[in-house]
Amino acid sequence: MNIKEFKPYLFSCDIKEVVSPPFDTITPEQEKKLRSARCNITALSMPETMNNRISPKKILDKWLKDGFIYEYDKDIIIILKQVFYINKEAVSRYGIISLLELNGTISAHENTFDKQVLERQQIMEELQAEPEPIFIVIPDNSFDKLIKRYAADLEEKFKFEEPSGVENYVYFLDDTHRITKVKESLENIQGIVADGHHRTQAIRNLEAETGDSFWNYALAYTTSIYGNGLMIGGVDRLVYRLNFEENLNKIKNLFDVYTEKTMEDDNTIRVYSRGLFYRLIPKEYVINETFGSAKPLSTEIINSILFQNVFGLTRDEMEKKVGYIYNTTEAINAVDRHECEFAVLIPSWQKDDFLNLTLNNRIFPQKSTYFYPKIPSGIAIYQRPS
Question: Exposure pattern of 203-228 as b/e (b: 16+ CB <10 Å)?
């Protein structure tokens, strides 16, 4: 894959006012708080949809005029160190924010929703900028060691802690020799889009439609998939206006169903409804009839067997009756609060399984993976020079 250094547009405001989670992971409560800040990136990445909304381009232009955003005066690669805790033990992850050539060796592993791609495309075209990085993982053991070694010699430019407890430390690498070494270390590596499939497709669409070389590159964060500081969870489903229990007999024709009062972490699909967990194991004949010899993913089983065969949902109906949530505890709480009818709890991934599938060009259903910790938006913007 091909990366290059760039002159980022940076915020002069207090970084704690600026940063946010990626736009598609923000809860309504978080959004309200973020929008109240003087200069938060959500004003650009999540423009309000009211008819009288302020154009994100006007907001960007005003922030540039008022000095809230400025162009850095050197070509750099940004190093991001993230520290978080697993069972009270500190874990670190190193990665870089740079420009990434999308015509290079980059693969996407998930399908996209046309509506969301168009929304991202319209926002970036209006801004003439990419306000958030896509998230790239690489199957390489040595990359994070190289970045960690370079970061150790650099001055910390700024740091901030996310509400989730993840600590972020930002460094600017401007040494041309070291930048060349970083670029060379990635030349023969296959990059995999972890997060940002809709943004990736939107940028590709803009390049194809305009022929503008600005859109040849995506603002991207790159890290190794092998480090302890990267985990791959499943994305749980919240289901609206459908009753699980009323369809239980039909479900039992297709799945072996085990009712449980508590949830075990055993890499099995479960449904949570009305205070009970239902462990779902699809019957062998159903798997063979539906998928043939291919081993299906958890999300393929849910989409094809549960949503389509049991509930008769079309793809369009799934978009209306199925929501996505990235925290299993919150998914369970949503059911208990009667915000949805039931939740489908998707198990986490083993990294080797993920790599074997993606490097063999397997395309997953939308919202099949959840990489974390996430990359905060607002650290830098890739913008067409004025």
Answer: bbbbbeeeeeebbbbbbbbbbbbbbe
Cα angle vertex 232, ends 32, 109, to 5°? 95
Enter the tokens of residue 284.
Answer: 């062998």
Determine the Cα angle at 153 with ends 226 and 184, to 5°: 50
The number of residues making up the chain comes to: 386
Q: Give the list of residues 6+ apart from residue 14 with CB closer than 8 angstroms, or none.
A: none
Q: What is the pLDDT of residues 176-192, one digit of tens each?
A: 999 999 999 999 899 99
The closest of 56, 82, 41 to 164, measured between CA atoms, is: 82
For 344-369, write each residue's pLDDT tens digit: 999 999 999 999 889 888 889 888 99
- Three-state DSSP at 209 gives helix
Considering 16-25, 149-158, 186-195, the range whose residues carry the highest mean pLDDT is 149-158
Read off the amino acid at residue 378. G
Residue 140 pairs in a beta bridge with none
Distance in angstroms (rounded) separating the CA atoms of residues 269 and 318 = 18
In whole angstroms, give the CA distance from residue 56 to residue 129.
11
Which helix (H) or strand (E) covers residue 189, if one does? Answer: none
The CA-based diameter of the chain, rounded to the nearest angstrom, is 66
3-class SS shares of the chain: helix, strand, coil, % to 5: 35, 30, 35
Contact yes or no for 166/82 (Cβ under 8 A) = yes
- Across residues 254-264, what is the average pLDDT? 93
Rounded to 5°, angle at Cα 155 from 150 and 160: 105
Q: Are 20 and 203 in contact (CB under 8 A)?
A: no
Distance of CA 63 to CAs 7, 57, 100, 193, 211, Å? 18, 10, 26, 31, 28
Helix (H), strand (E) counts: the chain: 14, 21
- What CA–CA distance (Å, rounded) separates 156 from 140? 26
CATH numbers and ranges of domains, the chain: 3-233+372-383 (3.90.1530.10), 236-347 (no CATH)
